[in-house]
Amino acid sequence: MEKENLKYVSSGKAKDIYESSSGNLVFEFTNRVTAFDGKKKSEYDEKGEITCKIAEHWFKIMEKNGIPTHYIECPTSTSMIVKRLDIVPVEVIWRNYVAGSFLRRYRAGEITLPEGVGTEEGSPIPGGMIEFTTKFEAVDRPVDTDEIIANGWLNKEEIEYITDLTKTINDIISQELVSSGIILADFKVEYGRTPDGQIILADEVGTPDGCRFWKKDDFDKGVITSLDKDVFRKSIGNLSVAYRELFNKLQGTNI
Ligand code: ADP
Ligand code: MG
User: How far, in Å, from the CA of 198 to the mean position of ligand 1?
Assistant: First the structure.
């Protein structure tokens, strides 16, 4: 996109960030992908465009459902203008099924699973559950609410608010995905504070970079087929192809 009138701010693992003359941020969604805290890296055709369009799709749905977000508009197919926020230094994870780092931590003996939850990838977590990790440390590390409060990152009421909001986001996306034949296994979101102290949804939502999406027909047969970044993490296919398939399935939801 036109870089005139834009001031370069920084580059994250997947997005380049600029500031516009009006003080908003402009995300440029790139084709970069990383996993395992940046240790595995690559680039895939179309990734930026598909991720941007999917994030735009879900931000609009969130706004329609009363979830406050930083989204303003997408001026091009790979860029998004958002309100600049003070990012809460905690990543918020919602889990509907056992997968990813949750399973790894269980197998390493670091955690116990909730009562009655199976120990396989894909075991359901009835009612879902929330987890928090650090955001601005070299390696994301799980943190409990006591540490979040003790560090002054969020107070008790803010944690409750964010928990409610994240559960609602889960319910909205999961429900919308039913007609596309996709299961939302888990996802990560970030929140930020506006200058007047309101906490709103930041970064991106509902993208295959930040969610685990499984094909429901395969899942019902006992097979997990991922349409998300696990394709890259586990080296089980071409990420462009998986993201394109997800995008095409979402077309059914009028993306
Ligand atoms: P990361 O490597 O941290 O995942 P990304 O490539 O996803 O980075 O780029 C987005 C960065 O911008 C993240 O660090 C995220 O916390 C930050 N960010 C997201 N939304 C906002 C916002 N509204 N204001 C300021 N920073 C934001
Ligand atoms: Mg990111």
Answer: 18
